[in-house]
Specification:
Blueprint (H helix, E strand, L loop, with lengths): L9 E2 L5 E5 L1 H23 L4 H7 L14 H17 L3 H16 L28 H19 L3 H16 L14 H12 L2 H12 L3 H4 L3 H7 L15 H18 L2 H17 L31 H18 L2 H15 L10 E2 L5 E3 L4 E2 L7 H10 L2 H4 E4 L2 E4 L4 E7 L5 E8 L6 E8 L3 E9 L7 E4 L2 E2 L8 E9 L3 E6 L5 E3 L11 E6 L2 E6 L11 E5 L3 E6 L6 E10 L19 E9 L10 E3 L2 E5 L11
Parallel strand pairs: 7-11, 19-24
Antiparallel strand pairs: 1-6, 2-8, 3-5, 4-23, 6-7, 8-9, 9-10, 10-15, 11-14, 12-13, 12-15, 16-17, 17-18, 17-24, 18-22, 18-23, 19-21, 20-21, 21-22
Helix pairs in contact: 1-3, 1-15, 2-4, 3-5, 3-15, 5-6, 5-7, 7-8, 7-11, 8-11, 11-12, 11-13, 13-14
Length: about 625
Amino acid sequence: MSRSPQAKLHPVPVRAVQLTGGFWAQRQRLTIERSIPTLLTLLEEHGVVDNFRRLGSTTNYVQRRGPLYTDSDLYKWIEGAAWSLASKPDVKLEATIDQLVDVILAAQQPDGYLNTYWVEDRAGQRWQQQTGGHELYCLGHMIQGAIAYYRVTGKRKLLDGSIRFVEYLLRETGPGKQPLLTGHPELELALAELYRTTGDARYLKLSGYLLSGVEQERLKLRPSQLEYMFSGSPFVERTHFEGHAVRALYAATGAADYYLETGDAAYWKTLERLWADLVGGKMFVTGGVGSRASGESFGDSYELPNRQAYTESCAAIAGFLFNQRMLAATGDAKYTDVMERALYNGINSGMSLDGTLYCYRNPLASGGEKIRNPWYDTCCCPPNLQRTFAALGGYFYSTSKDGLWVHFFDNSKLDWKLESGTRIQTETKTGQPWTGDVEIVVSPEKAETFTLYVRIPSWSEKSVIWINGKPAEQKWTPNSYVALRREWKAGDQVRVALDMEPRLLRANPRVPEDYGKVAVQRGPLVYCLEQEDQPGTSVFDAAISMPAALVPEEKAGLLGGITVLHHKGLTFGSKVESAPLYSTKEWTARTPVDLTFVPYYVFHNRGPAHMEVWVPAVAAATVPKNQLAQ
C-alpha cells in the first residue's frame, strides 16, 4: 500500500522487523521451525503436491486426491514459507520452494489456465460451476503466494505464471464473454495486490468487475446464493454481513483494497456500514467470527453461541485483514483494537503450542470434544495461520507522511525509513502480554522532527508515558494513538506503563447465552476456565463471586510460560446434575471454590477438556432467579 492514494498509513516490509524474543517471537519461531515443515510433509502425504505432478509428468501418478480446492493449500503454504524467509533465510527451504514452483508451473495449460481439478475429463466444465468450483479462489492464493515469494527473493517465476493465468482471464472472460463469479471471494484482494506489484491497471479493473455484480442476471443467481457467497451482486449494495463468514470478510477486504486504490466513496460508505454491523453484533469476545456450523456462516446480530460457535480460524484471519485495510485508510485505533483482539485470541488459538495441531473451529465453550487435529481434508486453516504468524512483523508498524506508527508491543527491532527518506531504527523491549512495561528506543540516522504514534489499547484505562524520563505532555485516552511530536535524536527513549488490571467484560443483554455472565480479560488476552485447573469442580458449575478479585500469578513452566489468574469463586455444588431440569426454586452458589483462569489461546493444549469463556457472575452468594447452572 506504499503508493495507494487513499492509504493514510503504509505498512513496513516484513523483512524490516525482527522479532527478538518473547511472546510473538516464540510463536513465529515455532511456525518456521515446526509448523511449516510438518505441514509440507502432510501436503505430500495427502497427495496435494502429486495433484500437480501428475499433470506435468509422464510418470503414471494415481488419480487426483482431495477436495477440488486443495491447490490453494499449497499456494498458502508457499506464501507462509516465503514470509518465513524474510525473517529467517534458509537456503534449503528456498530450494524446496523453487522445486515446488517448477512442479506447479509444469501443470499449467498452454493458454495459461491452471487448476488440478478442472482438467482432463472435467476440462469441459470450466467456469460452469463458479458458485462452488473455487477456480478463482485458487488463483487468488496463487497470486498472493507468488507475490510474497517475489518480494522476499526477487524470483518471479511463480509470479509470471500467475500473470499468465490472469491474462487468460482478460482474454477469455468478462462482459460480452464468459461471465466470472468469485463463488469464494479471494481473487479480489489478490488482484489489487497484483496491480500494486506490477502497476498494470487492468488487474485492478478486473477486481472492480468482480465486485460490481454486473453479471448477476447472466449468471442467474438465486438470493440464497448471493447471501451465502457474499458475491455476485453489487458490493456497494450490501448492508450487513451474512452468509459464509470467510467469503464475506475476504470480499470486504478486497473491496477495501479497491477503495484504497480508487477512492470510490460508495465503497467506503459500504465498508463502514459493514464494519459497524460486525463489531456491533457479530464478533465474539475472542475476535472470532462465524456463529453457525451450517454454511460456516454469520448468524443474526447477537447470535453468538459459545459451545456451538463455529469461529473458523480462517474467519478470524479474514477479519484481521479487513481491519488492517480499514486502519490503513484512517489511522483509527478502533480497527487496531479489533486486530489485536483477534490476533492474540481467536487467531492465536488456532495453532497448538507445539506447532503441529490446528483448530478449524475455535468455540468459546467445550464439552471435551476433540478440536485440535494435525490435518483436515479441508486444510485451509493451517497454512493460513502459518502465513499470518510468519508475516507478523509487517503488521506491527506503519509509516505516514508525518511519522512512525506503533500498533502492537512486542520485543522487536525495526530497521526502515521515514517517508521523508530518513533511515530509522527502533528497538522495543517489553513483557507484553504478561506485563505492562514497554520501552521503545528511537534512533533516526539524523535528528529530525516527526510524530511517533503510540497506540494506547482500549484495555489500558490508566496508561503513563515518559520521554527520556520525563512525563509526556500530550493527552490521550484508551483506544487511541497518542501523537508524540518532537525533534527525535538517536537513543531517545519512550516508556509506556500499560494498565494490566484484569477486567470483567459483559455482553450486550441481547446476547442471550451470555446474560448474567462475564468474560475475563487481562491485557490483550481473553481468559477461560479449563477443567484441568479446577480439580473437584466442574467448570460448568463455577461462578465468579462479585465483586471479583483476580490475582495474577506467573507460571513459567505451564503451557509454554503463561500468567494465570486466581479467583475465590463459588460453585453451584455437586447436586446440579441430579437436580430437576426445571424447578421453581432459586438456584444459589454458596460453596467457595478456588478457580484458576488460563489464557483462551492455550485451551486444549493438554488434551480435550471441558472449557468455557463466559462464566456466571453472582453477588452475595446467590444467583438471580431463573439463572440456572449451564
